[in-house]
Amino acid sequence: xxxxxxxxxxxxxxxxxxxxxxxxxxxxxxxxxxxxxxxxxxxxxxxxxxxxxxxxxxxxxxxxxxxxxxxxxxxxxxxxxxxxxxxxxxxxxxxxxxxxxxxxxxxxxxxxxxxxxxxxxxxxxxxxxxxxxxxxxxxxxxxxxxxxxxxxxxxxxxxxxxxxxxxxxxxxxxxxxxxxxxxxxxxxxxxxxxxxxxxxxxxxxxxxxxxxxxxxxxxxxxxxxxxxxxxxxxxxxxxxxxxxxxxxxxxxxxxxxxxxxxxxxxxxxxxxxxxxxxxxxxxxxxxxxxxxxxxxxxxxxxxxxxxxxxxxxxxxxxxxxxxxxxxxxxxxxxxxxxxxxxxxxxxxxxxxxxxxxxxxxxxxxxxxxxxxxxxxxxxxxxxxxxxxxxxxxxxxxxxxxxxxxxxxxxxxxxxxxxxxxxxxxxxxxxxxxxxxxxxxxxxxxxxxxxxxxxxxxxxxxxxxxxxxxxxxxxxxxxxxxxxxxxxxxxxxxxxxx
Length: 497
Ligand code: NAD
What we know:
Elements: E1 2-4, E2 6-8, E3 11-13, E4 20-25, E5 30-36, H1 40-57, H2 62-78, H3 80-91, H4 95-113, H5 115-118, E6 122-128, E7 131-138, E8 142-146, H6 154-165, E9 169-173, H7 180-191, E10 199-201, H8 206-213, E11 218-224, H9 227-239, E12 243-247, E13 252-256, H10 262-274, E14 284-290, H11 291-305, H12 326-337, E15 345-348, E16 367-370, H13 377-380, E17 387-393, H14 396-404, E18 408-409, E19 411-415, H15 419-428, E20 433-436, E21 452-453, E22 456-457, H16 464-470, E23 473-480
Parallel strand pairs: 1-5, 8-9, 8-11, 9-10, 11-12, 13-14, 13-19, 14-17, 16-17, 19-20
Antiparallel strand pairs: 2-3, 4-5, 6-7, 7-23, 12-22, 15-16, 18-21
Helix pairs in contact: 1-8, 2-4, 2-7, 3-4, 3-7, 4-6, 10-11
The structure holds nicotinamide-adenine-dinucleotide.
C-alpha cells in the first residue's frame, strides 16, 4: 500500500505519530493508500521549518520570487495530466473535470507571477510642506492553509501561490481523504527552485488543525471547508489573535424567469447540479422556477439528467464519477429516500445505482426532486451530492425573497433574457458571487472568490486583490525632510494637523 508522508523543509518526512488514515479509490471502494496523521510535535516541526524559511524568504527580492513562480507555472502546466490522475484516483471525479480543477488553480499561480504589479505601494508628495506619505504592504509570516476534499489541488492553489508571492511561508494541511495531489504540488515547487521550508505539507486530522490554530508562530489562517468547521476555525484562530478567512459550505440557487431560454437553463442546471457528482461548493443544488415554466423546465432537466453516463473517473466516457466515501453516499441517499415523506415529488431517484464491474464503488445516480418545500431537510441541508431540488414561485420577488432567506450566500444565478431583471437581481441578491445566465460564477483569478453569510467567516474573500490584501499588512510612513534654510519648528504640544 502507498504511504503519503509529510513534506517539510523541502523533503519527504515520514510520519512519526504512528497514526495513519485510509485513502480510498472511490470507484472501487478499495483502500489504496495510507496517509500520515501528524502529532503536535510534527505540527511544531512544520511550523518551525516555515518560520526558519521566512527569515530569508520574507526579504527576498520580488524578481527572485517571480522567477521561481514562472518556472513553477511551466512545471505545473507540464504535469497537468499527472496531477489530474492523482485527483481522480482519490477523489473520484472524472479526468476532464480534474483537469479543469488544475487549470483553475493554475490561474492563481499566473496571478502570483504578476505580484510585482500588485505589491506596488502608493506615495503622496507634499501633503504638508516638505512632508510626503507612502503606503506599502509587507508580508506577515507563517500562513496555515486548511483545505477540503472536493478540490484537492485547486483550493490549495487558491492560497499558497499568492501567500508565498507576497513573501510569507506556508504550511498546507490538505484533506486527509485525498492527500496525494498536495505533495506533488509541493515537490514541483521545489523543482522550480522554491527554497526549502517556504511551502510545507503537513497531513493530518483535527489534531494537526488544532495544533496550527493554537501555534504562536502561525500568524494567518486560510480555511476552506464546511460551515460548522469554518465557524470553529474562525472563532478559534481569531481568539488566538490570528488573521483568518474561513470559507464555508453552500446551497446555491438558480432562479429561472419565464422569459429564459429554457434549453440553456436546463443545460446549465444539469451541468452545475451534477458535475463532480454535486461535490462542489458552487454546485447548483436548488432551482427556483417561476411556476409558469416550471413543468417545462423540469421535463427538460429530467431528459438531460437521464442521459448522463456514470462510471469510473479514469474512463474517458464517464461524465459523472462516484462520491468520496460510502458513508457520504449513504447520507446523500437518505435525503432522496426521505424526500417524498416531506412532500417532494421524486422525479428521478438515483439511489441504489451501481456500475458493472465496480460494484464496491461509492456510486449513486442522479436525483431530481420537484415541489420541494423550504422546510424539508433536502432543501435546508447542504447535501453535497447529485441531488437537485426544484422549488416553485409565482414571481421574481417571491424567488428573491426565498433565496435571501437562506443562511448561505455563496454563489447564485439567474436565467432570463430581461436585462432589467438581471440588473435588479445583481443588486438585490444576498450572495457573494452572481451569475447572469452563468450557472457556476467562480470568478477568474484576478477577481476574488467568496460568499456571504454562513458561506464565509472573515473579512476577505480569497485570491485576487482580496488575497493580496489578506496575505500582507499595510504600513504608512510619513516623512519630513526639512530644508536647511527652514527655521526650527519649535515645540508644539497641539495634535499635528
Ligand atoms: P470539512 O469541513 O469536513 O473539512 C475541511 C478541512 O477541515 C479538512 O482539512 C479536515 O481535515 C478539517 N477538519 C474536519 N473536521 C475538523 C474538525 N472537527 N476540527 C478541525 N479540523 C477539521 O469539509 P470537506 O468535507 O472536506 O469539504 C466539503 C465542504 O467544503 C462542503 O461543505 C463544501 O461546500 C465546502 N467547500 C467550500 C468552498 C468555498 O469556497 N466556500 C470550496 C470547497 C468546498
